[in-house]
Amino acid sequence: MAWTGRCPDCGEWNSLVETAKPPKVTTGGKAPAAAGPAGKPVRLADVRAIETARFPTGIGELDRVLGGGIVPGSLVLLGGSPGIGKSTLTGMATANLQANGIDTLYVSGEESTAQVRLRAERLGPAALEVRALAENSLETILATIEAEKPKVVVIDSIQTMHRSDLNGAPGSVGQVREAASALAEVAKRLEIAVILVGHVTKEGSLAGPRVLEHLVDCVLQFEGERERTYRTLRAIKNRFGATSEVGVFEMRSGGLTEVSDPSARFVEEATGALGSVILTSMEGTRPVLVEVQALVSPSELEIPRRVVNGIDRNRLSMILAVLARHAGIGLGTADVFVNVVGGVRVDEPGADLAVALAVVSAQKGEPLQGDGGRPLACFGELGLTGDLRFVGHADRRIAEAVKFGLGPVVGPRSGELLSGLTGCGSVREAVRSALGGSNQQIAA
Ligand code: TYD
Ligand code: MG
C-alpha cells in the first residue's frame, strides 16, 4: 500500500493502518447470496463450561488482580510505561510457574537472551529455569509455540512483533493487532495462557495496547513513577475476575516485593505537615490509606500552574472551582500542586475531599490534625453545588482509618449513624470541621 499520511475522508493524520487482505471469495460471476447456511444455536446448558482451573503465579498481589491466577487459554495484556517493571513482573511470574511444573516460554523482542538472563539472575535461581526466545518474527514465534506447547507464554513486548508479509513497522496498529489476534487464536486452540506486554507512553496514548483492549480477556495496567519504588497493578478489564482490583508492589534489588498491607506503609510515612491529609481510598475491594499533599504558592504566571501527581488534572480544576464558589477559598492567582505520596494513583471521586482539604491547609498555612495530633483522615466526593456526596464502602474506609488510630474520619454525612465518622453535608462544613479540630462545635 502506498503511504497515505492523511485520511481522505476524515482528514485525520496517521489514522490509516494496513490490514491483511481477506481471502478472495469467488461467486462464479453470480451476485453473492444474501444469506449463508444457517448456524446451529445451542442450549447454553449443553455448552462445555470454560475450564476454571487457574495457574497461580505465586505472586499474591498479581493473582488477586487476575482473580485467582492466570486462566489457561486466556490473553492478558500487561500495559505500563517503560522501566516500570513489566519484564520483572512477568519474569518472576514465569519463574514461579516453571518451578511448579507449568511449562513457560518467555519471548523477548526487545532484549537478547543474555539480557533476559541478566535480569533473571537478579530474580533468583528459579528464574533461570524459564525458557527464553529472543525473536521478533511472528511466524517463528507461532511455530515455536506449536512445537513446544508451553502452558504460559510471555510476549515482551507486543510492539516489537512483526509479521513479514505486512509492511507496517513493528508497533504500528496493523502489526500489533495482527500479532495479537494470531496469538489469541493459538491461545484458545491450544489452551495456552498468553501474557502480552505492552508499552504505554506517559499519557497512556500509544495506539498499540489500546487497540488490543477488546481483543484480550484481561487488561492489567502497571503504574507508578519510575523514580519511586511503589508500583500499583490494576485490572481495567477482566473476563475472569473483578475489575478495579489493585495490587501494590515495591521495586527492590531482588525484583518486585508485594506490599500486602499498603496502608501501614503509607501511614507510617505520612508527614502530617502543612498541606497534608490522609485519604481513605478504596482500591478495588480493599481500603487503602494514602497521603495526599498540596502546595499553594503565589503564581508569577498569567495562567497559574496546576500540577498533579496521582490524580486527574481536570478533577483538580473542578475541586478548585468548588472551593472558590462554595467555600470562599479562591486560588485564581496561585500555583497549585497536588501529589499522592508514594507514586500511587487514586482514580475515584471519593478522593475529592482529601484534595480539597490538602489545598485548603496549604493555602491557609494551617496543618490538619485529627484526634491526638494524629494526621487527619477523610474521604468524600464533591458535588458541583458544594455538597459533600456519599461514596461506596464508607464503613470499610472508616474502619481502615480507625484501625490505624486515625478516627474520627471527616466524610459525608450518612443516613445511618457510623461511628468514627465526622459527617459533613457540604465542603464548607468539612473545611470548617477539618481546620477547627474535631473537638470544636461545627457551625451549620
Ligand atoms: P523492567 O522490568 O525491565 O521494566 P519494563 O519491562 O517495564 O521496561 O525493570 C524496570 C526497572 O527495575 C529497571 O530500571 C531496573 C529495576 N530493577 C530493580 O530495581 N530490581 C530488580 O530486581 C530488577 C530485575 C529490576
Ligand atoms: Mg521490559
Keywords, please?
single chain; 444 residues; alpha/beta; Ribosomal Protein S5, domain 2; 18 strands; globular; disordered C terminus; binds thymidine-5'-diphosphate
Q: What does this protein structure show overall?
A:
The protein has 444 residues and is α/β, with parallel strands linked by helices. It has two domains: 53-260, P-loop containing nucleotide triphosphate hydrolases (Rossmann fold, 3-Layer(aba) Sandwich); 264-443, Ribosomal Protein S5, domain 2, CATH 3.30.230. It contains eleven helices and 18 strands. It has helices at residues 60-66, 86-99, 113-123, 138-148, 173-190, 207-210, 262-269, 313-326, 352-364, 394-403, 427-436; strands spanning 75-80, 104-108, 131-134, 152-156, 193-199, 218-224, 230-238, 246-252, 255-258, 276-283, 286-298, 306-309, 334-340, 377-378, 381-382, 388-389, 409-412, 421-424. Strand 8 and strand 9 form a beta hairpin. Helix 4 (138-148) packs parallel to helix 5, helix 8 packs across helix 9 and helix 9 crosses helix 11 (427-436). The longest helix is centred in the middle third of the chain and has 18 residues, at 173-190. It is globular. The protein starts with 59 loop residues before the first helix and ends in an 8-residue tail after the last helix. Residues 438-444 have low confidence and may be disordered. The structure holds thymidine-5'-diphosphate and magnesium ion. Thymidine-5'-diphosphate binds at residues 80, 82-88, 119, 122-123, 251, 253-255. The site of magnesium ion (MG) has 4 residues, from helix 2.
